[in-house]
Amino acid sequence: MTTPAATGRLSAFTNEPVTDFSIPANRAAAVAALARVRKEMGCDYELWIAGSAHKTGDLLTSVNPSQSSEVVGRHHKATPELATRAIEDAHAYFTEWSRVPAEHRVELVVRAAALIRQRKFDFDAWLVVEAGKTWPEADGDVSEAIDFAEYYARQMQKFASPEPTVQMPGERDEMIYLPLGAGIVIPPWNFPLAIMAGMSLAALVAGNTVVIKPSSETPTIAQKFAEVLREAGFPARSFSLCTGSGSSVGDLLVEHPKTRFVSFTGSRAVGLRINELAAKPRKGQVWIKRVVAEMGGKDAIIVDREADLESAATGVVQSAYGYQGQKCSACSRAIVDEAVYDEFLEKVKTKVAALTVGPADDPANFMGPVISASARKAILDYIEVGKKEGRLISGGGPAAGDGYFIQPTVIADIDSKARLFQEEVFGPVLAVTKSKDFDHALQLANDSEYGLTGAAYSKNPEKLRKAREQFFVGNLYLNRKCTGAMVGAHPFGGFNMSGTDSKAGGPDYLLQFLQAKSIAEKIG
Ligand code: NAP
């Protein structure tokens, strides 16, 4: 492998600007990208394992959730033998990759960011057709992927030249950071590029090899990312793309004795299963596996009687229905002071009535489809539960069209012990609950096994102070929506059953993929 010139100190990190689709040139570029992507749709994709492509003949088909008869890609699925080979080869190649100078790894990650940036409209289009994201949501995902790459590249420069330790007399003392080994990266479908790229590039830039097991809903986006890694110059064996269902290859990868770490983002149920399986040492295993598991949310927005109600209603509606409520950070509980409850509900009802639902590629739609037929069924079942548990204000069923469309739904008067208040629905469903005062609202908000994001709207600084102190979430927002975390500014990760709070996009994140070694040399 050739080593390009050292990157030198990278300039200060800045967030990638999101595309303004109201500008005609950007609209035209989006239309052209969609046409390019549509020409490519329906192709077969091979696995990438241990440095070469593989076919198995057993295919996974991914479809456009806006138009389920449209095939996005057909993907060869890994067999257990290939999955085993992927992790064993990642382990075997680790020594070589871990010795590549950090500056070179940084350079490759920056190149990957540049390639994604160059292909931004194409990546946006793949996210529109495979994940059902509207153009702005897709562009947010792609911009975040670029941000993760640029941010972690800079963080690696920091960890490659650590701060000096205290020097003992007669010694040269230092602490350096080493990569861990071969890891498994398991992303969800809801940020199929950003989260996959973030976890993979963080692991790679730190000097680890990775086996990426993409979500079965969004395997084409994973293929496009693997193309970027190869073109950026990542060695063929530094990563594998091991498409296949969680149940057939997921457990195997997690349990393998050569797996050193698992970097997972997804549901609570799967995260806990991975944590449990990884905790059990297997024959030949010489380490405790490290598990980073970022999981679900039941995120609340508190609306105080002293809030700007117009701004609070806008924040709640954007947080609840952006990407059809399929964000771990989505607002699924609005906890509203009784003094402003009815007025607030009216405002939300009016704003929800103005939301448009339909195919994600049509820029006129604010909401696209949910990800799959099974997700639609699960969400509609929850809506039926909600109708019994509370009072239906808006929506309440499927929306018209050939895709997996659901009406934005608001259900009021939900009790804190109700299922709709406690369980993650992961769809466009908002439960509204009345609080007596701000203290009661905080108690209600914290009455959850999750603790991912939360927001409080109030003009009273004392109440905001209390929220800072008592609202038990990993990401708290005051007088703004609870979605839209920005890399660098809002390191992201939750408490309790929301996960291990690894804070993606934060200054400590790379430590998840590193181990520190202390060295003392006697001198003189
Ligand atoms: P999921 O069903 O838990 O799946 C996540 C990933 O795990 C997928 O790649 C899935 O593969 C894989 N998987 C399933 N079973 C497995 C097993 N036994 N072993 C190993 N891997 C396995 O979650 P999802 O539906 O994709 O994503 C939505 C969830 O993610 C929500 O709960 C959301 O709140 C959470 N989320 C959390 C964050 C955060 O930062 N906290 C961010 C985004 C999303 P298959 O697709 O093949 O099943």
What does it look like?
With 524 residues, the chain is of the alpha/beta class. The protein has 2 domains: 25-295 and 502-519, Aldehyde Dehydrogenase, Chain A, domain 1 (3-Layer(aba) Sandwich); 299-486, Aldehyde Dehydrogenase, Chain A, domain 2 (3-Layer(aba) Sandwich). It is built from 15 helices and 21 strands. The radius of gyration is 23 Å and the shape is globular. The two termini are 40 Å apart. The chain binds NADP nicotinamide-adenine-dinucleotide phosphate.
Helix and strand content put the structural class at: alpha/beta
Strand adjacency order, main sheet: 14-15-16-13-12-18-19
CATH class value of the largest domain: Alpha Beta
In CATH, what is the homologous superfamily of the largest domain? Aldehyde Dehydrogenase, Chain A, domain 1
Small-molecule binders: NADP nicotinamide-adenine-dinucleotide phosphate
**Fraction in helix:** 25-40%
The largest pleated sheet is described as: 7 strands, mixed
Q: Please give the alpha-carbon distance between the first and last residues.
A: 40 Å
CATH topology of the largest domain: Aldehyde Dehydrogenase, Chain A, domain 1
In CATH, the architecture of the largest domain is: 3-Layer(aba) Sandwich
What is the strand tally? 21
Instruction: Report the radius of gyration as a whole number of Å.
Output: 23 Å
- Weakly predicted, low-confidence segments: 1-5
Q: Number of folding domains?
A: 2
SS field, number of helical segments: 15
Mean pLDDT: 97
Q: Which descriptor suits the 3D outline?
A: globular
